[in-house]
Write a structure and sequence with these properties.
Elements lengths: L2 H4 L5 H9 L9 H17 L23 E9 L5 H19 L32 E6 L1 H4 L38 E7 L2 H15 L3 E12 L28 H7 L15 E10 L1 H5 L3 H8 L36 H5 L10 E2 L2 E7 L5 E11 L2 H10 L9 E11 L16
Helix pairs in contact: 2-3, 4-6
The chain binds protoporphyrin IX containing FE (HEM).
Length: 425
């Protein structure tokens, strides 16, 4: 029962209603409740965005949705001994919780200040905060279908799409096992970091006894625009990132490059996509001592405007044939944008949705920072093609890939259904 139904207790929606009406401070559940409500409702009014993205739909939200500012990405392993029924129950529970949280409601049906004899249904730190554009995107890793030990724990082995297999090793990979692979993933994106963290915290709590966190990543500052309505943000090398990205407005490009079509199958993946996550450490200190002209040569674009070095403005198509006074191409042969461009990658376009991260510093006093690269594509082989093309990328001198994972992202959830229902047939 929600508190709206019970008439007592605190809920996110109840507090927001009060904040919206300018009535903060009205009694919600006795004097204590009123005091809390006054403080929280004031904070809600001053902070965050009330954007709500629908949880249900043809595709999961969080892919072509305009990229929000904050990320909490989490990867889980299903616990030893958990059964197929346990896994199905978890997916049902996650669906119910995700539906509520993305609408700006507290996670459970019960009140936060309910029975003093039980832990509250919701951990409470998002009380009074609006939905903040929260999207929750769920995925299945290759080891969910066949475990690392090779057993068919959940009777899913013959349901694994052939495209879904562990990524090959790439030149220069320095992968850390603790940041690699995993059975299940949840990408939480929101315009308020507390809302994204609250979502992952509560979904981890719901998983207790069935699945455990394997690794996770916080991201601040999107490094991609996924809609023409957004300004292009910058990555930690200070360059505009996302200029040539696939955008939500390009329906045919999405159909061609991002969504799994009926012809491709399997049926349970139609309308879904594949997600590649790469944690890429950036050697910030070396980059910051590099001459501007070298930085621009490495990327192939100008730092201020983000224009291709062949000329024009940010959205001018690069001309890779154009030469300068020395007869060398204006966009270097090893420039990142040349090697990542569809012209040299069988026309492949990825939908990039990455985030800047800083995880403090390392023991040598260097920033432990980089790009948490996320890309959606209709086949992980597309990522593999581009990443292999980047083997001679001039950027590699300043990068180390330390984490890696791939997931099948099923289609959107219909009203009344649950994530992955079609997978379990
Ligand atoms: C820390 C690592 C990386 C940095 C700093 C970086 C930076 C950039 C920048 C500044 C651009 C130009 C602006 C734009 O069109 O977005 C760009 C473009 C691009 N990047 Fe990266 N990138 C990184 C890693 C990757 C990886 C791992 C891939 C895929 C395997 C990739 C794929 C692309 C693609 C497809 C483009 C668009 C190329 C075009 O069509 O013009 N990037 N990147």
């Amino acid at each position: 029962m929600t508190d709206d139904e019970s008439g007592r207790g605190l809920s996110r929606r109840g507090l927001l209603g009060l904040a919206g009406a300018g009535a903060a401070g009205l009694a919600l559940g006795g004097a204590g409740g009123a005091a809390v409500a006054a403080g929280i409702a004031g904070a809600a009014a001053a902070n965050g965005t009330s954007t709500v993205y629908p949880f249900h739909g043809e595709h999961q939200a969080g892919i072509s949705t305009p990229a929000q500012d904050r990320l909490h990405f989490a990867v889980f392993d299903v616990d030893a001994g958990a059964s197929r029924d346990d896994l199905i129950q978890l997916l049902k529970d996650w669906t119910a919780a995700a539906r509520r949280m993305t609408a700006g409601d507290e996670v459970g049906g019960g009140a936060v200040d309910g029975s003093p004899l039980a832990p509250p249904d919701d951990t409470g730190e998002a009380l009074g905060l609006p939905a903040s554009g929260l999207t929750l995107t769920f995925g299945f890793g290759p080891t969910l279908f066949t475990s690392a030990e090779g057993d068919d724990r959940f009777g899913l082995a013959d349901r694994r799409p052939p495209e879904l297999e562990a990524l090959p090793r790439f030149r220069g990979d320095a992968l850390v096992p603790q940041l690699t692979g995993g059975d299940l993933c949840i990408q939480a994106c929101a315009d308020d970091p507390q809302v994204a963290v609250h979502a992952i915290r509560n979904l981890s709590r719901i998983a207790f006894g069935t699945a455990s966190l394997r690794w996770s990543q916080l991201g601040f500052g999107r490094t991609s625009s996924t809609s023409t309505s957004q300004a292009t943000p910058r990555n930690l090398f200070g360059f505009k990132d996302g200029t040539a990205n696939v955008k939500a407005e390009e329906q045919s490009a999405l159909a061609e490059n991002v969504w799994v079509g009926a012809k491709q199958g399997p049926e349970w993946m139609v309308g879904g996509s594949y997600l590649v996550a790469r944690k890429i450490r950036m050697v910030i200190e070396s980059w910051d001592r590099t001459r501007l002209e070298e930085q621009e040569r490495v990327i192939g674009r100008s730092k201020g405007e983000g224009a291709p070095l062949s000329g024009g403005t940010e959205f001018t198509e690069p001309d890779f044939t154009r030469k300068g006074a020395t007869d060398a191409p204006l966009i270097d042969r090893d420039a990142h944008v040349r090697l990542a461009h569809p012209d040299v990658n069988d026309g492949i376009r990825l939908l990039r949705r990455g985030y800047n991260y800083v995880d403090g510093n390392d023991s040598l006093g260097r920033l432990d920072a980089g790009l948490f690269f996320l890309s959606y594509q209709s086949d992980p082989a597309h990522f593999v093609t581009v990443q292999r093309s980047l083997a001679s990328d001039a950027l590699n001198e300043y990068l180390k890939h330390v984490g890696s994972a791939v997931f099948a992202i099923p289609a959107g959830v219909a009203e009344g259904a649950w994530i992955g229902r079609e997978l379990f047939g």
